[in-house]
Amino acid sequence: MSYEHLQETVNDYDRLFETGEGYDVIIYAGQNENVKEIRAHSIFLCTRSQYFRSAFSKEWAEKKDGKFIFKKPDISPLLFKIAIRYIYCGKIDLTKLKGPDILKLLLVVDELNIITLIPCIQEYLIKNKYEFLQQNPIGILETIYQHEQFDELWNFCLEKICQEPEMLFNSDKFISLKAPIVELFLKRDDLCLDEIIIWDSLIKWSLAQNPTISQDVTKWNKEEFTIMERTLNRFIPLIRFYHITPENFLDKVYPFKKLLPKGLVKNILAFHMTPNRELNFDILPPRQQKYSVVSDIIESQHFALFSNWIDRKDNLQINSRNIPYNFSLLYRASGNEMNITNFHNKCDNKGATLFVAKIQGTNQIVGGYNPLDWVVINSIGSFKSTSDSYIFFFNDYRDVKTGKLGRVTATQRAIYCHSNLGPCFGSNADVYFNGSWGSVPDAYPNLNIPKRFDIDNCEVFQVVKRGLSSLYK
Question: 0.70 exceeded by the pTM?
Fold first, then answer.
């Protein structure tokens, strides 16, 4: 028989780090008046960290009075201490750190080669510091762009900017971007901008890299064309020229024809002038367009979250670009116009539906997903069984993080259909409309939905899985 007391061991190592008893390493973190002395033990650091094994090698190490001296003026004492504590006892607490400090900590653990912490910190940032990431995705991207292992954070920032590219392409920040970042954006299928705007922005960026060249292409000499060709060479293959209108191509691209590969202009002319002819050259697909929002209550990020919940991806890492379902509006009514007969006329026999209602005089919304039909089978009504339905409640619909999900627990009583009821979830009607709105928790978890409430408006959407082809329309 064996016994483990791991927590006791962890606590002892944590205590050893705090007391510094028997230390043989002095770390000076920070600089000037902010420099702090951190005491540690080389045996722990070298055992748990390849970085420190190298740092304490004969080639690097500085020793004084038998102690290793280690200086890191570019790292704050607080963040360095957090990283060292993790090396000692495998514990880290991010809850007291603000978004900017967590981002800096991510850079610290990368520098110290604490690989296991990188995905953990990225996940925490995305799930718990969503607002911080939304505030300045461009700046965050510039901070982390040389760190390939920050893939989750990379993708978050790229997707956020591609959803709202005007924040970058209409700002002065675009022309100061590093070439690899520009290339990243131009490679994206989900960069939601007209191709001619992307081309105009690329020309503007290239001129900013060569400020001595005239803004007027008709004034360029042979040497200037050569300079611009070298600047743009890596980007030209990424522009979807075939998806620029003939008028815009003639006015805004053709003047730069000397920068384009031989034969490209001829191929574009053939593409537009003989649309029925089979072409023997490759054409990049058009970039995806923004998800069309048809709701007066919610936005694309809500539909993305509802899609996640349908697919049982119960987290807030939502992608408003590639929403895998179409949500087609079937029925809309204000609070005093909600009518049960109209609801059934519009929503029966439509397959899966989602309804959402805004509670009167608040920012709260309530609703539910029914993967089945609302059609009434008989005059006395009937329950429908499913394990895929859910209800939801947002305390503030403007912040998707406030959304609470309730999956059905009593699957045999998931949905109730009756000609005298509108949408009705659960046997005791966890969410229902019978002429008035209410909630009695029973077949779903208690989300603290008000027992009785009025609404400002209500919407019902048909939910259909999108085909792969529709993602590119």
Answer: no
